[in-house]
Fold this protein.
Amino acid sequence: MLDQSTRSAILLLRGQGHSIRAIARVLKVSRDTVRLVLHVGTPEVPEYVRPEKAEVHQDEILELLPGCKGNLIRVHEKLLDRGATLSYQALTGFCRRHGIGFEPPKPSGRYHFDPGEEMQHDTSPHRVRIGDKVMLIQDASVVLCHSRMLFHQYYPTFNRFWCKVFLTEALQFFGGACGRCMIDNTHVVVQQGTGATMIAVPEMVAFGERFGFVFRAHEKGDANRSARVERPFDHIENNFLAGREFRDWEDLNQQARAWCEKVNATRKRSLQASPRELFLQERVRLKPLPIWVPTVYQLHHRIADVEGFVSVQGNRYSVPYALIGRRLEIRETKDRIEIFDGHREVATHDKVLEPLSQRVTQAAHRPPRGQGRSKTSPCPEEVELLRAEPQIQAYLVAFRSRHPGRYLRMLRRLLGMVRDYPRAPLLAAVRTAQDYGLFDLDRLDRMVLRHIARDYFVLEAAGGDFGQDDEEDGHEG
């Protein structure tokens, strides 16, 4: 079939008065072809319509497609069951040419970013062998859009805690932050909405304000908007992970950091420069880091169990045995477990990243062999209580003889009352309870509050009588 330029030449030469034989000889085509073009009279190439086997089944295809959820394999199977004699390739070609079940391809967009304008962040699951195990873990990546500087690290999972850990490391790696961080519509950052209507979680908004950037989400389905960070994931999986072995998590992330340094120094043909060279002009436009970058940690509160351990993320960490039963504050950082009793740090451990039900123990947290507390010696709560208020020792002895199984619970409750209530009404209530043999701690608590209400919160009216009546009512109560 002749193309449009040859057809135009035939019509042009004929218009100049050349014979059909001369035109065919010059253009190296047959005379019948020249006559056919002259008969049509236009240079447009006629569309060749070939009969298609699937055309007679078009109505059936449109009927079956919704029930098969757009799966043409199932449509083909059902057509064969109904007696059709067409191949799967004929079916897909027919559907593609007529737009059945296919969307026409859309042209990709092109985005221009000024230095320091935007960075893009995303995650991708990768299967990685660490030691002798293959695990599905999360690869987090950040790319500076202007210079294409890349930074990525691996984490066992990815939530807001790990997101803040990663972004802090990434911004320290770059030495600053862009004014905008583009993300997909992930629940880690997004509280509600998508795209331009996205509202970020206040916790992540505050984190962004610390480094001077804001989170933005691309529109749903607009994958090209985050192409800067999406494209390197394939290179990471097929280049960085290929043929490399990792001893542990620390070795994995150290090699990932070193690989980023190598890739950032490699010249890219599309940029006519390396990302490191372009970064020299972008770095001066980044938001500078704050003078102090606090350590990112996740806060937990635990009560030390009877074995002297606290549980964090499926693993147990030891605490000094004297803190058994105490409520402790746990700060979980990227690689440490820090344990606090009030404002005082009492223990630190290397963090176990995988929930393996491991016990992490320090020898200093266990009592020396043969020097543990004997069963007859007073417990730490009793020692602290008698040190704070020695006059209630007789009440403790009486309570222990009456209710030995509830003694430790009573000590903790009474220790809290000693810390919270004034001394005089507490001792008065304890003496009364001891005289009458009252060992109900709820009733003892009400007695203390009655003394406090009578002696410490007496309100007098303007005339004086109202306050006196209230006081008398309080005595009667």
User: Anything to note?
Assistant: DSSP finds 17 helices and 14 strands in the chain.
